[in-house]
Write a structure and sequence with these properties.
alpha/beta; five-stranded parallel beta sheet
Length: about 240
């Protein structure tokens, strides 16, 4: 009996997952879906169940932390949320073990991707292909965005390439429409870039559509690069 075991051991073998991205993509998120699937498999291997913590407060006016406590979860995984909100801070300062994804805190374990190295490798490759006019359509402000921007500027500086302000524009993660619009703006510059880096592969698709809408060819007229290496990027032409 699961309930009886929980009372005796003070463990439920249940882990809470808090995931709510701005794009409302849920489990279809092109990046975090694979991360969460890996988490699910690892949890099952250790005989743990997973409970997704929703923000539906229509019936119970409970915070995220109170919902986690009411479900008796043994730990919480937090991904793709606004970490500075009071509800998330309540979880981080609570007494339930927490693991954050792609955000570092002193009070809990964090799993992070190497965004600095990833961006560095992209810019290095673009330079190795002869590009010096490298634009970057980045995501909205976040710790990930800041790290990637620092790496972008640092790599250009190391090669003695000017970081031009008009080449760095804000789109958004997974927002192909916003990145489509930013790409049109870049292509309309008097001295347009020869290569554009996008914050993820879905955003890159928006960029490629914008480039083609202006009658330009990829990569003959302009090159594109998408961050993340999502499977969708390998299924279209040209691949990225």
């Amino acid at each position: 009996n699961t309930a009886a075991r929980a009372l005796k051991t003070n463990k439920t073998n249940n882990l809470g997952v808090l995931f709510c991205d701005d794009a409302q993509s849920g489990l279809t998120h092109t990046y975090f879906s694979s991360v969460l699937e890996g988490f699910r498999k690892a949890a099952e291997d250790k005989d743990y169940d997973i409970t997704f913590i929703s923000n539906n407060q229509t019936t119970h006016n409970l915070s995220y932390y109170e919902r986690c406590r009411s479900r008796g979860v043994d730990g919480i995984v937090i991904a793709c949320v606004s970490f500075d909100t009071p509800q998330i801070q309540e979880i981080l300062n609570g007494n339930i073990p927490v693991v954050t994804i792609d955000r570092v805190f002193d009070t809990c374990t964090s799993i992070v991707s190497d965004n600095a190295r990833g961006m560095h490798d992209l810019v290095e490759y673009a330079i190795s292909m002869g590009h010096k006019k490298i634009a970057y359509v980045h995501g909205k402000p976040s710790a990930v965005t800041e790290t990637r921007l620092e790496s972008y500027y640092g790599c250009l500086k190391a090669h003695g390439i000017e970081a031009r302000a008009e080449y760095v524009v804000e789109g958004d993660y997974l927002d192909y429409k916003a990145c489509y619009d930013r790409t049109i703006e870049l292509l309309n510059l008097k001295d347009r870039p020869t290569c554009i880096i996008y914050p993820d592969d879905l955003a890159c698709i928006g960029g490629t559509n914008a480039i083609r809408s202006m009658g330009l060819s990829i990569p003959d007229d302009i090159s594109v690069m998408g961050y993340d290496g999502a499977q969708i990027g390998q299924a279209i032409s040209p691949r990225f």
